[in-house]
Specification:
heterodimer; A: alpha/beta; Rossmann fold; 9 helices; 5 strands; globular; B: alpha/beta; 2 domains; 7-stranded mixed beta sheet; 5-stranded mixed beta sheet; 21% strand
């Protein structure tokens, strides 16, 4: 297999639109960013010969919306104490995060060519001291939500309006530490904390339902004291509207169930557990890129 | 003790103190001086003696309830927001239940979190091995980027906390519950990775820390009466270890006895042995806890495992042959 080389790095740096740009422009910008991120991320995984492409593709619209239009953090303000925080709890989709950070200028696009190579800063799970913009070294599941709760408490102590977003996988919610954190979040009335669930309904080798079902997830989150919203996790308009409008209920943290498909929108990957960490062959990569270019 | 009169200044006869009191007084002082400092607990307000802190700084004592994994993750998140989190929880639950959070969220993420292991070792005595924390040092020692401090008295507890508050990065500090005499002068400054020679000696070396250190000093006093000159090295920092002090002791004395309120597998004794075998092999006797302890108070159990002053002196004699 040829390693990822400079010629495979095709993604433009997109930057953000002005915050006051029209909603339609914002959404079109996010959509194009997400398309470019998907193209680049598929190449990353193909040439690295490893990665979690299924979960990457289910999360990319959420990541692109957050970094493209919601979070008040840019490469220039990445050390500002009052920046919004985003914590990727499902750290195994690091490839999607790196690609998104590169798309918005936090990481040189060329550096993506080092993904998973010996001594690369782009490890299989994110490290905040290797890559600017990463807030927590995640990987073991069930860690991001408690960290997010801690940050949201710090913001409250500071009487700051900075927000905290954490993206968790749905299978990940089987870890008990999440539920400890959900209880604390509502107890501390962290209404500037938003938990986004990448609800793709698949875990490593089977459906979440078959493995250890989460339903009724909305009722559980609501019983834990959250304002609960459900969105189509691939509808950038939906995501933009919801994620930029928190808090929804004063005094309550927000729980967004983002319905997604693993592998979206690639026809042969979508909603297929086999693509959790399968690596696309050259032919599969070509077909996937083709689908992303023509649709 | 029957022979108090023959050794009027013996360390064993000094008044004893619960280090938790020094802990809470210092934490309150530090919090007064630095607004970034917060406490994080797992319902352990009373057992950590933090009621007064809670009264003084109601918003700055974060009680997440009985949820240790969340507690350590929350501390890491508070650090992300610029706070200095002093996590205060029974060492057995803090280090056992939340070990992966300590590894990933604190040590690997290099967060400014101070893990304060309350009532460590066998402090909970009769409550048994579920509540003993003899493993904490061994399993934290296996984690990179973690400074491990085992203070021996209230003065060193306070000094270690002051150091921790002033120094960015992860640290674990044991805070003893079992009362111990003061061993250090009031103006003692804690320096991480530095051993302190409490008694000079050329025949044999005793290396210890925490609640056992005064017992090692008392053992050296006994040995002196038999004309055995025992060097006593206080080793408050188990990681990074003062390797120079260990190598020097290996070179200059006939052997080393380590003694601590922790497992014999991989704690201070293990750390010392690793240095000795790789640099200057000599005889080493590791005193510690070799098993899930039977029912008994901490003091009873330390004696049982050969860590009474008599027991430590006996181990030294045995090593000298």
């Amino acid at each position: 297999m040829t390693a990822l080389a400079a010629e495979h790095i095709t993604m433009p740096v997109l930057h953000r639109l002005h915050p006051h740009a029209h909603r339609d422009e914002q959404i079109a910008h996010i959509a194009e960013a997400a398309r470019q991120i998907r193209i680049q991320d598929l190449k990353l995984v193909h040439y690295a010969g490893a990665g979690h492409i299924g979960g990457d593709l289910s999360a990319i619209d959420i990541l692109a919306t957050l970094y493209g239009a919601v979070l008040n953090v840019t490469p220039e303000t990445v050390d500002d104490p009052d920046r919004d925080r985003f914590i990727l709890s499902k750290g195994h989709v690091a490839g999607a995060l790196y690609t998104t950070l590169a798309a918005f200028g936090f990481l040189p696009v060329e550096e993506l060519a080092t993904f998973l190579k010996p001594l690369s800063k782009l490890n299989g799970h994110p490290n905040r001291e290797y890559v600017r913009g990463i807030e927590a070294n995640t990987g073991p599941l069930g860690h991001g939500l408690p960290i997010a709760v801690g940050h949201a408490i710090s913001a409250k102590l500071d009487v700051s309006r900075r927000r905290t977003y954490v993206l968790v996988g749905d299978g990940e919610l089987q870890e008990g530490s999440n539920w400890e954190a959900l209880m604390a979040a509502s107890h501390y009335e962290l209404d500037r904390l938003t938990v986004i669930v990448d609800r793709n309904r698949l875990q490593q080798g089977a459906t979440v339902r078959e493995t250890n079902d989460l339903e009724p997830l909305d009722q559980k989150a609501s019983a834990f004291g959250f304002a609960v919203l459900e969105v189509n996790g691939h509808d950038r308009g939906d995501l933009f509207d919801v994620l930029s409008s928190v808090p929804f209920r004063p005094g309550k943290p927000t729980f967004v169930i983002a319905h997604t498909h693993k592998g979206h929108p690639i026809s042969f990957m979508s909603n297929n557990a086999a693509w959790h960490h399968k690596v696309p062959s050259a032919a599969e990569l070509e077909q996937a890129l083709d689908e992303l270019t023509t649709t | 003790m029957t022979d108090t009169i023959s050794r009027p200044s013996s360390v064993a006869d000094r008044p004893r103190y619960d280090c938790r009191n020094a802990y809470v007084e210092t934490l309150a002082k530090l919090a007064q001086e630095d607004h970034r400092i917060v406490g994080v607990v797992n319902d352990s307000v009373g057992s950590s003696k933090l009621d007064a802190f809670k009264k003084a700084f109601p918003d700055r004592l974060i009680n997440v309830g009985i949820a240790e994994q969340d507690m350590v993750g929350v501390a890491a998140g508070l650090a992300n927001g610029g706070r200095i989190a002093f996590v205060s929880a029974a060492s057995c639950f803090l280090t056992g239940r939340a070990l992966e959070q300590i590894k990933a969220d604190v040590a690997y993420s290099n967060r400014n979190v101070k893990l304060c292991g309350m009532s460590p070792g066998m402090a909970y005595g009769e409550l048994g091995p579920t509540h003993h924390s003899i493993e904490d040092i061994a399993w934290l020692r296996a984690i990179d980027n973690m400074i491990i401090v085992v203070p021996a008295d209230p003065i060193e507890t306070a000094a270690a906390m002051r150091w921790a508050a002033e120094t960015e990065g992860p640290a674990f500090i044991r805070v003893s519950r079992m009362s111990v005499p003061e061993l250090y002068p009031e103006d003692y400054t804690f320096i991480p990775g530095r051993a302190i020679t409490l008694r000079e000696g050329d025949d044999i070396t005793l290396i210890s820390n925490g609640t056992v250190l005064w017992r090692a000093v008392a053992a050296a006093e006994q040995l002196a009466e038999e004309a055995i000159s025992a060097r006593v090295i206080s080793m408050p920092t188990v990681k990074p270890l003062d390797t120079e002090a260990v190598i020097k002791a290996a070179r200059e004395t006939a052997g080393i006895v380590t003694a601590e309120e922790a497992t014999v597998a991989g704690a201070l004794g293990g750390a010392v042995a690793e240095v000795v075998v790789q640099n200057h092999p000599t005889k080493v006797k590791i005193l510690g806890v070799p098993e899930f302890a039977p029912t008994g108070s901490a003091g009873f159990l330390l004696d049982r495992y050969g860590m009474s002053p008599d027991g430590i002196a006996e181990a030294a004699r045995a090593l000298l042959g």
